[in-house]
Specification:
Blueprint (H helix, E strand, L loop, with lengths): L1 H32 L9 H11 L6 E5 L6 E3 L4 E5 H5 L3 H18 L3 H29 L3 H38 L5 H36 L5
Parallel strand pairs: 1-3
Antiparallel strand pairs: 2-3
């Protein structure tokens, strides 16, 4: 019974948190993607306006495929906006575009948490694969030491996610400020834009919670066992 609760109960909770956050961001995004902003400004135009206002004319804004695949590439100094965000003149599109501009502003200002996150990327890429295989092989062959190595690699991922939180929250804070001072959105539209960005932030909170629960599950199941 205890094994069932630990193994499946915690996994179910993590799954509900993840799915719930995803539903929240999708519903908020789709809702305000249908609501035009008063300036009839696309995400691409909003991004270009914010970058120019802040003297970042050397950063490109390009369209990329996919759904909510928007991101800022600090190595190539490019903001990539998904098709809906790039071409649509909605509240959601300018909010998302402004958020990515927030990351560009962080890069310009050498924002500490962004620098730490960038430094952690190689370790996280390794940990995400190696940790999974270490835990899987450890469970199959009952090699507890290998499972613990996998847990330690999961903790590296958790540290990365914890560092990512302030990066994302600060980018949204900068985005809302730019949308207001640049008069891209009205005060009423800003409230709706904030809803979109807050929903997106919840996905990062959910990722942290899910990773914590997974680490807790593994420790409870294998913490007291010996090879």
């Amino acid at each position: 019974m205890d094994y069932f609760i630990i193994n499946y109960g915690i996994t179910l909770i993590a799954l509900v948190i993840t799915i719930g956050a995803q539903i929240f961001v999708n519903s908020s995004y789709k809702k305000y993607l249908k609501v035009k902003n008063h300036k009839d400004m696309t995400g691409a135009e909003a991004a270009r306006s914010i970058l120019t206002k802040n003297g970042l004319k050397d950063i490109y804004v390009v369209e990329t495929k996919g759904y909510l695949t928007d991101h800022y590439d600090p190595t190539r100094k490019v903001i990539r906006l998904s098709t809906n965000v790039y071409n649509t003149s909605s509240i959601a599109s300018v909010a998302v575009a402004a958020h990515e501009c927030g990351h560009a502003l962080q890069d310009r200002d050498n924002y500490t948490f962004m620098k730490i996150r960038s430094a952690l990327v190689p370790f996280v890429n390794f940990s995400s694969y190696a940790g999974y295989f270490a835990i899987l092989i450890g469970i199959i062959f009952q090699m507890i030491n290998l499972i613990w190595i996998g847990i330690l690699l999961e903790i590296v991922i958790l540290v990365f996610q914890l560092v990512t939180l302030p990066v994302e929250l600060d980018a949204s804070k900068r985005a809302l400020k730019e949308l207001e001072t640049g008069e891209i959105l009205t005060s009423e539209e800003l409230v709706k834009g904030k809803t979109v960005l807050s929903a997106a932030a919840m996905t990062y909170v959910a990722s942290v919670a899910s990773t914590v629960l997974e680490i807790l599950r593994l420790i409870l199941l294998y913490g007291n066992r010996k090879d």
